[in-house]
């Protein structure tokens, strides 16, 4: 019974933890501009993140090494450092976006400008990282984040034409008002939002934090294989809500307040309250994860002691690095840059940097010296290689498309 | 410079070149550069309209509705900025830009009115004496709709869709 | 001199003909015992005619999954060979010069 409860908890946190500001914004933007014609990308992204998280979790549990320890060992100091720089900068962007997301959600609740909420969000995130136990932190934000299911409920309340939604999703085509360049640019953004690399740093470091052994792999596989696809459904519900309400009204999403409109229309003030709770929890959880991830990547690369299972004084550099990251993120927000804009760029840059983390994990997951008999099976390797190609294509195409479409304008 | 660095530099240069090429093909100046701000404005005014509707039905809270209106005002500001930076080359472009600017200021004004009406308390303690309040929302809605129509008309005339 | 100074530098033979770049340095753990492991002894350098990038572990012949990736990396490093420490005449920041009668060994690690 206790075991079953553990599994259920794991799945629920995986669902709640899947959606962050990147998924919220990108799915709503895409839904309001392209309907469900990019739904297939969410599917591709979810399968990809399941594959990738599973591999990195297995590497961590079997070899005891988290992602950046592996990158450092396999790629050497020089290539590893370039990799670290890119991953760290994107992580920093994501931290900035998530803190902005918390503040924007609080503005939606209170009407007080998000700028005034930023310091509050900063201190709250830092306190939790400093004081709260890893498992509590993960479970609480994940479970409360589940209130984003309100998007799925709202979709039912809106009584959409399910047939037309399904045909948009099953027969994707570029809408007449948008060019093919924009379509593919947002395809990459959506892919990056679903497959954000920080989730993988976090997942593998979390495996070390929670001292996974080989026998825990079954449970982690269940969490990932059920939780992430259900999270993907949540993403699709966000896009569908926007497609049902905002697309016909001629509204294309550029702010978080617009993301909330379909939910408000469907469920009124109660639904809005649940939505805000969900957004705050999801972005707060993701802010914790991204901040920890930047600490993990730095500490693992430079060989500092790291982890929340150690007391802060025993992992001083790890904690200082995270404080610096948080302050840097807040400094970026203080310039007045639109957090939604930061979010949109962060998901695309995540897609660009994806090969940097995916390739080393794939290689090490095949290395018998690390993995013993737990190396990738043949079927996994075939799928993993197909994804390597997809990831490389998306990564190379992203910047030309960004320039050509003026970042999807 | 080792060979791998040269390769990297060449790849980057190729990417930038390709991007430039694509962007060169994609954007003919003139009406296309007005498309971005026009669409942004259209989306902003429609968002405000929907928000006022939701507020009238008491579905949206005052906080959420004013946040939305504030966001849309910011959006209009950036759309206006873009439009002002648009260098018109022909007489036609100039007149198109000018009429669009005029409509943008109409939209901004109606958005301001909407924001004020949305921010007011739902029921005034003294009764119907306060002017800015939920009672004003239908009038504001009319204003927003009229501005939307003007913009749509202009966009159709200019062939922006 | 640290390894980073050596990796990627040019390798020439005794006549000054360019042979490639240093893409790896091989060590054996068979010297005097130290605290944890025995001290590392430098066996030689791996010279690759085309690229100084890493083999990413695929120099070991028993590692060959995922197959297309292994093939790609091996193809990129084709023609690589191992030169023993004894066959190196000069090793400095400007590169490595080999002795006239050096032996090129197979650079892959069989197992």
Task: Produce the secondary structure layout.
The complex is a heterotrimer of chains A (409), B (161) and C (111).
Chain A: H1 2-18, H2 21-34, H3 39-63, H4 67-110, H5 114-131, H6 134-145, H7 150-157, H8 162-170, H9 180-194, H10 197-209, H11 217-249, H12 256-302, H13 316-334, H14 339-365, H15 368-371, H16 378-405
Chain B: H1 3-26, H2 31-56, H3 62-84, H4 91-119, H5 137-158
Helix pairs in contact in B: 2-3, 2-4, 2-5, 3-4, 4-5
Chain C: H1 3-6, E1 10-12, E2 18-28, E3 41-48, H2 67-76, E4 81-84, E5 88-92, E6 95-98, E7 105-106
Parallel strand pairs in C: 1-6
Antiparallel strand pairs in C: 1-2, 2-3, 3-4, 4-7, 5-6
SSE run of chain A:
HHHHHHHHHHHHHHHH
- CATH fold description of chain C: SH3 type barrels
Structural class of chain C: mainly beta
Q: What's the CATH first level of chain C?
A: Mainly Beta
- CATH fold naming of chain A: Amino acid/polyamine transporter I
Overall body shape of chain A: globular
Brief overview:
Chain A is mostly helical. Chain A has helices at 2-18, 21-34, 39-63, 67-110, 114-131, 134-145, 150-157, 162-170, 180-194, 197-209, 217-249, 256-302, 316-334, 339-365, 368-371, 378-405.
Overview of the molecule:
The complex is a heterotrimer of chains A (409), B (161) and C (111). With 409 residues, chain A is mainly α. Chain A is 81% helix and 0% strand. Chain A contains 16 helices and no strands. The radius of gyration of chain A is 20 Å and the shape is globular. Chain A starts with a helix and ends with a helix. Chain B has helices at 3-26, 31-56, 62-84, 91-119, 137-158. Chain B has a single domain (31-158), classed as Four Helix Bundle (Hemerythrin (Met), subunit A) (Up-down Bundle), CATH 1.20.120. With 161 residues, chain B is mainly alpha-helical. The radius of gyration of chain B is 22 Å and the shape is flat. The N and C termini of chain B lie far apart (50 Å). Chain C has a 7-stranded mixed beta sheet, with no helix packed on it. The mean pLDDT of chain C is 80. The N and C termini of chain C lie far apart (32 Å). Chain C contains 2 helices and 7 strands. At the A-B interface, α4, α12 and α16 of A face α1, α2 and α3 of B.
